[in-house]
# Entry
Amino acid sequence: MSDMPQQPKEERTDLSEGRAVSRREFLKIAGIAGATVGLGAGLGGLVAACGGSATTTTTSTAAPATTTTSGAPSSSTTVTSAATKGREIKIGNPLPITGVLASFGAYEKWADELSAKTLGDGIVLGDGQMHKITIIQTDTQSDAQRASQVAGDMITNSKVDFLVSSGTPDSVNPSAVQAEALGCPMVCTNDPMEAFIFGRGLKPDTVETYPYGLLFGVDQELVTQPQAFNKVQTNKNMGILLANEVDGNTWASVIVDGFKKLGYNVTFPQQYQPGTEDFTTQINAFKKAGCEILTGTHYANDFTNFWNQAQQQGYKPKLVFIGGKSFSDFSFPKALGPSSVGMMANWLLHKSFTFTDSLTGMTVAQLCDQYEADTGNEWSENVGVQTARSWAIDCLKRATNLDDKATIVAAIKTTKMETIYGPVDFTEPVSATGRHPFANVYKAVTTTIQCVKGADAKPTADTKFPYDCNVVGADFLEGLPTYQTIEQQYS
# Structure
């Protein structure tokens, strides 16, 4: 048997048949919360075993020229008879179909299929020609090295014209490295901007050619979390629990000193190793300091182990923020149970947002409803991964020469549009304290949400599902209603 590394094997699935488809000095002022996501099973692809590894590649072959909603702008899919037929345009999407981030990949697959249906048989792009858009999916297996291999293979072998990526540094960062090294335009979302820049060894003034992100910043946590915490009377003693990995280290570089400067009494014990089974050291430190507030970001299995041990050892803080890496959809509270009510996380999207998706023409609420109709699962912030596809298509519609990568990059660099993650304007000057903090990064809207029972959701109660969430803090959304945090003992 050959010892040569195997290339990802491509398997194509026609989506046109039988499917109803629906973000130390600069760091101190500069956002992260990894976002693993929720369960959206039911739109699965194929997983092929190949030399001990599983690779899935789905080609989103367009369905008949229809839109997913009557509100969809006709310019997204209308093909005029005068338009010359151009070549196929390939968009590569390295995504985690298997592994610890697989639930996130389920949302990406849903968004790819929704986009394929909306695009139909073809779309007129910036060169005035009608092009079939193919979205290629390949499984990263939730592994950063694998994601790098997959992205590289898409660029060099599949000859994709564009890369899209969403969700945690494990997927986005290696894809961005390959995009820059191999010269492929790329847009990404759902990644901490600090991890995206500094996690890849870049400097604040670095200007890359190919990868661009609509991302969130850990600095935004210093705005949104206090909005929530200040609604409950506490002693302002805060425990910070973080893992010793990219996300944890990025959060630590921002929020430890950041919360101290905001007047919190911070206890920050040693960072745990992912997968640890003993949190006694951290729990004892928080109990000794009387920490009524707990914050951090974690993989769901790590936080669950911590929380069970904390309850057994008598540590019950008033306020618990666990981050979108654990709690980015409602599979988390369903698994943890009633003690999850009152826990908080950072979400980039809430169903109450009034933004509209440029590709489908759907509002945020309509997209959330479509996701529920397609999968039978509850909406979450991760419906927002649709943003990367819509952004990519917007750029292709403004690029006048699709065979010239510099032209596509120029379209990305001049992006000025509304997304379901808020407005994006890369023509704004780069400013460390603004929404365009790095040349290749624009900041998304960020909120702090709190888990509630379905019947307690605002502005509209939803009793179809046992759990929902309310927005209790927000950055960059003036006038967005926020609701009283539940003072809750998590019992």
